[in-house]
């Protein structure tokens, strides 16, 4: 699920910079009906109050039932040292999700600093997945490149090879985050299964979400996908799947 | 029996049209008495997931000065295979391919539910889309790095077969060759010298060599194979271009103390337009300008390089103290018109803390349908995500952007078209349906919209021309047809035809019916667009006076105070930016811009919309305000105290945590999809950023009128601005006293 997240904006460069949504979230788009209702007009005596402007939205989901049915119970005085009256307390039953937005999509608390990449949402359990193996990833890419050498110009193949080396360098020297490594693994799995569009989509989401880490070499992967998908299938034969089973692609 | 509300909504859903009046007065005299003219907001490419395009050419009327498209309003004789044009009454035979049609086997374009229909037409060779990046290198390193990355990222978002090119500029202008091997080459132009299109093409080596001995020959055409050195398909050049972008350096010319960098934006744009002009006329092309400051050199300069001379403010302009304004506005206007004639568009991505000259350059985008995005820095999520969304795709995975649009309007003979307001230019098409009275861009029945998307909306103005006392035809209806031809992002050429009709009504006997057909929202936005159009071409105060004579009260109150008409507190660039978006967005978004949405979240019940009034600001409420350009979440005083005390972290106050989260979730829905991305403000009672909310609400409680004894809820607002109540009273007096 690490392709769906929200980061705070860059408060240093833009004091009211909005949060940054991952590619996956932006592509998923909005699932709720928009807030298009207006408040009632001023009840002024003698004035022709215009009827309320507001698009008749198809249903009332805009006023989503976050708090329905809750009457705040009597105040619970917790700490007598606080001079302000605490809010009405209450533990509500777990809300059924009004929307189908996935769990990693809540806005984070106000950003604490320019570098805080607060990936939001409750990720209670530590991630149990082992980091993907570089060998698994680069072997798929190398095989794809080999298959291309017949039909694609030498210059282009060298260019791609150069970038694959950059990828390996970055990987081994620890410059890549585990998210990027995991998604590269997912990308190569899609390539192995000849799911070119899915692989292309992962490359795109990596470029959008992690451009700083991947921009130097990702264009080589992009090219590799584009070239291999044009090859006839018999030229492309990947070695059998390796034993490490990664997480399923969560697009 | 549907209500007018439902009728209006159904028509908008199907045709993308909202008329100010849905019953039209049958006489010219009566029509002119209406404060709001017969007019509509029209969204030519409204998204219609339920409308698959048909794969054949439209059938058109044979009369030379008509050529209306076959539509559900036409009378058809299925046996004789003849149809009568509802605009000019010419009888036309059906083409041979329609031989099999009958009463029970009708072609789609005759059916009422296809009042809007789209045709895919195969015409000529497929032309690829073109994206030409024009990049300012006079940026701080952090900004340049962020911009490099965004541009590299965009190569993954472009359509794979699109052509892409790169021009960089600072003191000089460099056109980069995108060859696939060897050393990177570029052609350098001086940033101070204005060049003609022909000169640019010659210097880039794009002209075919002239045959000797041919005197007086017309100018040699561009050599397309030469042009492709500068514009290459993405799939072929992406690796090279990625490296090239990665190696882009800041402009090497040192900037002395007290000076601005020398930025030759004018020449850079002229080179870009010239490059495209010869080889790719009337192909979908976007020139994308990325700039981090004002043009300071050469034609189109907005301010000199001395920092002690500030860039023009509204005050300077009103005092006629803006040295470069007229000349550079004219320069860009000429460039914009040339670009529009070529069918290309120009986007401006301006990220800087100070102004960048949008006031002078705005016509580049306004006339061509290009975007203007205004941010503080390229290293902000506002720029990065807005830029990503330029390449957003629709429900079927196709790019939303469309190119090379031409829109034509046909009317039945009782109507004429007066003009259009939106991101368009006139095509100067005269004809029987063109009125002599101009409103907006008039004097034509055809306009060019070089770049458009599913939300692009034009305001169209009409005039009733039938004579007073001419009998209203029984059951007669006036009809209007919009024919929009464009290049779809898949490079297919398409034609979308929308044909609408409304009943005529005799104003003498049916005035109440006409009144009940009034669409207040559409009218408000249409009048607002007219106001903005006039504000941009006339003096400001006159527009406000004109507006006061219009009688759409509540909306006009907010419009008057809005940044569209009220330039106080905004720079000229900011005003240009807000207006740019206002005259092209659809109705719902336009309404939000003038009269922001305000939602209230509290323990007292579910979230609800509340009045945009200071009385809505209460201590135990959270407010979410959407002005389209900003999203403001405001925590009332008590809420803020609770938040500060950390109650949301305690298990027994789970409901408070959810209360805090609710407006964030709703804001997120908007943030995820809106173009351009709005600014995001999280503030509270007493916070300095609360001013965004306070300046928008109706100040029913000000320090002038609130007294200490009342129990009135709501925070008083420190302003000298009049409240809605006072405004309404004043307006009532005006309306009664004036005898117009």
From TrEMBL, chain B:
<dbReference type="GO" id="GO:0008270">
    <property type="term" value="F:zinc ion binding"/>
</dbReference>
<dbReference type="GO" id="GO:0070971">
    <property type="term" value="C:endoplasmic reticulum exit site"/>
</dbReference>
<dbReference type="InterPro" id="IPR036180">
    <property type="entry name" value="Gelsolin-like_dom_sf"/>
</dbReference>
<dbReference type="InterPro" id="IPR037364">
    <property type="entry name" value="Sec23"/>
</dbReference>
<dbReference type="InterPro" id="IPR029006">
    <property type="entry name" value="ADF-H/Gelsolin-like_dom_sf"/>
</dbReference>
<dbReference type="GO" id="GO:0006886">
    <property type="term" value="P:intracellular protein transport"/>
</dbReference>
<dbReference type="GO" id="GO:0005096">
    <property type="term" value="F:GTPase activator activity"/>
</dbReference>
<dbReference type="Pfam" id="PF00626">
    <property type="entry name" value="Gelsolin"/>
</dbReference>
<dbReference type="InterPro" id="IPR036465">
    <property type="entry name" value="vWFA_dom_sf"/>
</dbReference>
<dbReference type="InterPro" id="IPR006895">
    <property type="entry name" value="Znf_Sec23_Sec24"/>
</dbReference>
<keyword id="KW-0813">Transport</keyword>
<keyword id="KW-0479">Metal-binding</keyword>
<dbReference type="GO" id="GO:0005829">
    <property type="term" value="C:cytosol"/>
</dbReference>
<dbReference type="Pfam" id="PF04815">
    <property type="entry name" value="Sec23_helical"/>
</dbReference>
<dbReference type="Pfam" id="PF08033">
    <property type="entry name" value="Sec23_BS"/>
</dbReference>
<comment type="function">
    <text>Component of the coat protein complex II (COPII) which promotes the formation of transport vesicles from the endoplasmic reticulum (ER). The coat has two main functions, the physical deformation of the endoplasmic reticulum membrane into vesicles and the selection of cargo molecules for their transport to the Golgi complex.</text>
</comment>
<dbReference type="GO" id="GO:0030127">
    <property type="term" value="C:COPII vesicle coat"/>
</dbReference>
<dbReference type="InterPro" id="IPR012990">
    <property type="entry name" value="Beta-sandwich_Sec23_24"/>
</dbReference>
<dbReference type="GO" id="GO:0005789">
    <property type="term" value="C:endoplasmic reticulum membrane"/>
</dbReference>
<keyword id="KW-0963">Cytoplasm</keyword>
<comment type="similarity">
    <text>Belongs to the SEC23/SEC24 family. SEC23 subfamily.</text>
</comment>
<dbReference type="InterPro" id="IPR007123">
    <property type="entry name" value="Gelsolin-like_dom"/>
</dbReference>
<protein>
    <recommendedName>
        <fullName>Protein transport protein SEC23</fullName>
    </recommendedName>
</protein>
<feature type="domain" description="Sec23/Sec24 trunk">
    <location>
        <begin position="127"/>
        <end position="391"/>
    </location>
</feature>
<dbReference type="InterPro" id="IPR036175">
    <property type="entry name" value="Sec23/24_helical_dom_sf"/>
</dbReference>
<dbReference type="InterPro" id="IPR036174">
    <property type="entry name" value="Znf_Sec23_Sec24_sf"/>
</dbReference>
<dbReference type="InterPro" id="IPR006900">
    <property type="entry name" value="Sec23/24_helical_dom"/>
</dbReference>
<feature type="domain" description="Zinc finger Sec23/Sec24-type">
    <location>
        <begin position="58"/>
        <end position="98"/>
    </location>
</feature>
<keyword id="KW-0931">ER-Golgi transport</keyword>
<dbReference type="InterPro" id="IPR006896">
    <property type="entry name" value="Sec23/24_trunk_dom"/>
</dbReference>
<keyword id="KW-0472">Membrane</keyword>
<dbReference type="Pfam" id="PF04810">
    <property type="entry name" value="zf-Sec23_Sec24"/>
</dbReference>
<keyword id="KW-0256">Endoplasmic reticulum</keyword>
<keyword id="KW-0862">Zinc</keyword>
<feature type="domain" description="Sec23/Sec24 helical">
    <location>
        <begin position="554"/>
        <end position="591"/>
    </location>
</feature>
<keyword id="KW-0653">Protein transport</keyword>
<dbReference type="InterPro" id="IPR037550">
    <property type="entry name" value="Sec23_C"/>
</dbReference>
<keyword id="KW-0968">Cytoplasmic vesicle</keyword>
<dbReference type="GO" id="GO:0090110">
    <property type="term" value="P:COPII-coated vesicle cargo loading"/>
</dbReference>
<dbReference type="Pfam" id="PF04811">
    <property type="entry name" value="Sec23_trunk"/>
</dbReference>
<feature type="domain" description="Sec23/Sec24 beta-sandwich">
    <location>
        <begin position="402"/>
        <end position="505"/>
    </location>
</feature>
<feature type="domain" description="Gelsolin-like">
    <location>
        <begin position="607"/>
        <end position="693"/>
    </location>
</feature>
């Amino acid at each position: 699920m690490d392709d769906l997240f929200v980061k705070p904006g860059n408060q240093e460069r833009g004091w009211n910079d909005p949060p940054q949504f991952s590619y996956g979230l932006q592509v998923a788009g909005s699932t709720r009906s928009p807030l298009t209702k207006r408040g009632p007009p001023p009840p002024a005596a003698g004035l022709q109050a215009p009827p309320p402007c507001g698009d008749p939205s198809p249903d009332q989901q805009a006023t989503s039932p976050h708090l329905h049915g809750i009457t705040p119970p009597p105040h619970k005085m917790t700490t007598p040292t606080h001079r302000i009256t605490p809010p009405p307390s209450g533990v509500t039953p777990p809300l059924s999700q009004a929307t189908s937005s996935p769990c990693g999509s809540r806005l984070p608390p106000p950003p604490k600093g320019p570098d805080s990449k607060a990936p939001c949402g409750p990720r209670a359990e530590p991630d149990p997945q082992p980091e993907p193996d570089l060998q698994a990833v680069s072997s798929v890419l190398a095989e794809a490149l080999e298959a291309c050498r017949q039909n694609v110009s030498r210059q282009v193949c060298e260019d791609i090879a150069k970038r694959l080396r950059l990828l390996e360098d970055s990987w081994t020297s620890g410059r890549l985050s585990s998210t990027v490594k995991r998604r590269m693994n997912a990308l190569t799995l899609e390539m192995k299964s000849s799911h070119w569009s899915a692989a292309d989509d992962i490359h795109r989401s990596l470029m959008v979400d992690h451009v700083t880490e991947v921009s130097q070499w990702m264009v080589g992967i992009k090219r590799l996908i584009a070239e291999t998908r044009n090859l006839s299938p018999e030229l492309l034969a990947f070695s059998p799947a390796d034993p490490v089973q990664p997480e399923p692609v969560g697009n | 029996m549907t209500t007018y509300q439902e009728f209006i909504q159904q028509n908008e859903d199907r045709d993308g049209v909202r008329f100010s009046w849905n019953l039209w007065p049958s006489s010219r005299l009566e029509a002119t008495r209406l404060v709001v003219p017969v007019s509509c907001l029209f969204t030519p490419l409204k998204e219609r997931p339920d409308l698959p395009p048909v794969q054949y050419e439209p059938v058109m009327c044979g009369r030379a000065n008509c050529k209306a498209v076959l539509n559900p309003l036409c009378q058809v004789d299925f046996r004789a295979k003849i149809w009568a044009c509802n605009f000019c009454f010419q009888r036309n035979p059906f083409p041979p391919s329609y031989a099999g049609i009958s009463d029970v086997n009708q072609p789609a374009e005759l059916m009422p539910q296809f009042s809007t229909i789209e045709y895919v037409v195969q015409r000529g060779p497929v032309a690829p889309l073109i994206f030409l990046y024009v990049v300012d290198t006079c940026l701080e390193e952090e900004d340049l790095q962020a911009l490099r990355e965004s541009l590299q990222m965009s190569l993954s978002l472009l359509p794979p077969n699109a052509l892409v090119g790169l021009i960089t500029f600072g003191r000089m202008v460099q056109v980069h060759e995108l060859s696939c091997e060897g050393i990177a080459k570029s052609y350098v132009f001086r940033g101070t010298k204005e060049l003609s299109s022909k000169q640019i093409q010659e210097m880039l080596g794009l002209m075919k060599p002239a045959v000797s001995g041919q005197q007086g020959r017309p100018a040699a055409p561009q050599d397309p194979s030469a042009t492709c050195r500068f514009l290459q398909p993405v799939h072929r050049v992406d690796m090279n271009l990625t490296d090239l972008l990665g190696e882009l350096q800041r402009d090497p010319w040192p900037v002395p103390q007290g000076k601005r960098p020398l930025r030759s934006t004018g020449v850079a744009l002229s080179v870009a337009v010239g490059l495209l002009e010869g080889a790719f006329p009337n192909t979908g092309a976007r020139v994308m300008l990325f700039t981090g400051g004002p043009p300071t050199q050469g034609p189109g300069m907005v301010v000199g390089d001395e920092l002690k001379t500030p860039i023009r403010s509204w005050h300077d302009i009103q005092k006629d103290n803006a040295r470069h304004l007229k000349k550079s506005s004219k320069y860009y206007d000429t460039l914009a018109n040339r670009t529009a004639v070529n069918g290309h568009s120009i986007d401006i991505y301006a990220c800087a803390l100070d102004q960048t000259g949008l006031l002078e350059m705005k016509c580049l985008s306004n006339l061509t349908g290009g975007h203007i995005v205004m941010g503080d820095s390229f290293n902000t999520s506002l720029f990065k995500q807005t830029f990503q969304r330029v390449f957003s795709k629709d429900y079927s995975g196709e790019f939303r952007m469309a190119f090379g649009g031409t829109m034509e309007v046909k009317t039945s003979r009782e109507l004429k078209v007066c003009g259009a307001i939106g991101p368009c230019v006139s095509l100067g098409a005269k004809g029987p349906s063109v009125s002599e009275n101009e409103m907006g861009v008039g004097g034509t029945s055809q306009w060019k919209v070089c770049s458009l998307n599913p939300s692009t909306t034009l305001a169209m103005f009409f005039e009733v021309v039938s004579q007073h006392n001419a009998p209203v035809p029984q059951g007669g209806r006036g009809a209007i047809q919009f024919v929009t031809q464009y290049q779809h992002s898949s490079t297919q050429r398409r034609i979308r035809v929308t044909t609408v009709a409304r009943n005529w009504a005799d104003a003498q006997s049916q005035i109440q019916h006409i009144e009940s057909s009034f669409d207040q929202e559409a009218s408000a936005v249409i009048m607002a667009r007219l106001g903005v159009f006039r504000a941009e071409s006339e003096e400001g105060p006159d527009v406000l006076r004109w507006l006061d004579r219009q009688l759409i009260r509540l909306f006009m109150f907010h419009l008057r105070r809005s940044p569209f008409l009220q330039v106080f507190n905004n720079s000229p660039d900011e005003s240009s930016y807000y207006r740019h978006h206002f005259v092209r967005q659809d109705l719902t978004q336009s309404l939000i811009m003038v009269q922001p949405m305000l939602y209230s979240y509290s323990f007292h019940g579910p979230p609800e919309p509340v009045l945009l009034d200071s009385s809505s600001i209460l201590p135990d409420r959270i407010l979410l305000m959407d002005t389209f350009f900003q999203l403001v979440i405001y925590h009332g005083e008590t809420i803020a105290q609770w938040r500060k005390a950390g109650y949301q972290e305690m298990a027994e106050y789970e409901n408070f945590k959810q209360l805090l989260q609710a407006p964030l979730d709703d804001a997120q829905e908007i943030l995820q999809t809106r173009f351009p991305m709005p600014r995001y403000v999280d503030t509270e009672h007493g916070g300095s950023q609360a001013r965004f909310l306070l300046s928008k609400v109706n100040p029913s409680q000000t320090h002038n009128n609130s007294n200490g004894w009342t129990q009135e809820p709501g925070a008083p607002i420190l302003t000298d601005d009049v409240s809605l109540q006072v405004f309404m009273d004043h307006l009532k007096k005006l309306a009664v006293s004036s005898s117009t």
